[in-house]
What does this fold into?
Amino acid sequence: MPLQNTMNRDPAWPPGTVRIETLQRGDFTDSRGDIILQPRPSSDPNEPLNWSSMRKHLNFFLASFYSCMIWALYVSNLPVKTVHDINFSRIDAATPTWTDMNIELGFSYAILDDSYAAGCGALCIGAFFMIPFALAFGRRPVYLVSTAAQFAICIWSAKMQTITDLMLVNILSCFFGALSEVIVQMTVADVYFVHQRGLMNSIYVWFMNGGANLAPLAAGYVTVAQGWRMVWWWMAIFFDICFLAFLFLYEESMYKVSVGVIDGIPSSVGDPEIPAIYSTEKSQEQLPESIEKLALDDANVETTSPQIDDTIPKKTYLQRLVPFSQPQGSPGYFIRHCYQPFLILFTIPSVFFMALIYGAITACTTIMITTLSSYMALPPYNFDSAQIGLMSLPSFIGTSLGVLITEPVSDWAILFLARRNKGIYEPEMRLWVIAGFIPLVPAGILMFGMGLKRGSPWPLLAVGYALCSFGTAPASSVSLTYITDAYGEIVADALVAVSFVRNLFAIALVFSLAPWIETVGLENVLLLSLS
It folds into this structure.
């Protein structure tokens, strides 16, 4: 934990609990005060927390666009699993590229499924190997390597000829793309304050879902008009643009604390500059007194206007775009971050809980996408690939509406609740935002699933799909923001663990849903998923 980030925080408080608002009076009423910047910025103008809004937003936009492209690439490789039912024959409905690849190259759907399984395995483990590089060398080189690799892989995919090509492009694209969810959150934690992260994560979820929902639609029309290989050429063009944007515009956001920090933890041994706030001798009984003291003593509090030391020289444009930062830590530091996510997942209950929530959201989405693609190719709908692709629009619309509501509510709610808590913010305060959207998820799934089973008009299914997406979007953004706020010092490892669980849910459902539906029926699958 950086030195400047520990002020207004008592070690007896749970992780992430900080003071984010002063009070206008000392009577602890709900009167509005000034926002305290958390994490606390230093006086260094080069620290990302002290960047101008333009520089922060540019970095965040590039990171979000990167995530959008990764999800578009991932969904382009997503197979539509076959569904078996005693009432109809086997269906082999695949993404637009899969059908044409089957015709031109002779790849069977079994081989295509196997290639996707290989990619899913790489998706689960990729972040464990890639994120330690971002922690040791900085975010910028990892973004550059990943986008350059995806650019090359897209060209390889466009020129694909053999089964070996198919397997390798799926494995490598998922391996280099697995870090997308984690490294974007690291960027958010680097450059934004606590009271801004809810908005930024909502925007990030919108970008991510935009890539996932609109890519199949675009791929379908490109395949029909220009052929399946052009889908990958277009992806290569966009990744080339992404790489050039990162090369010339993205600044390194990893900030090195120069005093008393070892592996991100202040060292109090022989360091007189480390304040007594790090002492673990404070007991829980002292907590009310500590809160009272912090809430009343505003003399040295920096709020929305951090004090910048003008004597510190600002980095030049070329200095801000160095290829990589000086490595941090020893080889043991790198190895530790390869296995530490597993330790965090099974030793910190709140991380495990957030991983289950994120996995459940994935389960809802996977079930709806898979059943939609399989069942709507049958009577009474008889949708073709383009029409099935259009059914992704309700999900995108629902997500967009959910984000529009979550953006202002999440950050406003924590300030309101912090005022009622004597200016003290607790990360769990964000979870209240999810409560109002939870009922919409089962309602949307039931409307969609039961309507699909009974052959109801497609607009009813579209509304159910949009309703479910509307409910899951806030849960996604709030879950990620909670992890970032509560465990900022280990946010990378914590999010690697969460991403691992989410990908396990996705893999299990994609490959088990068809036999599950065949065994118990669609209605029972939906009812069990809701439980």
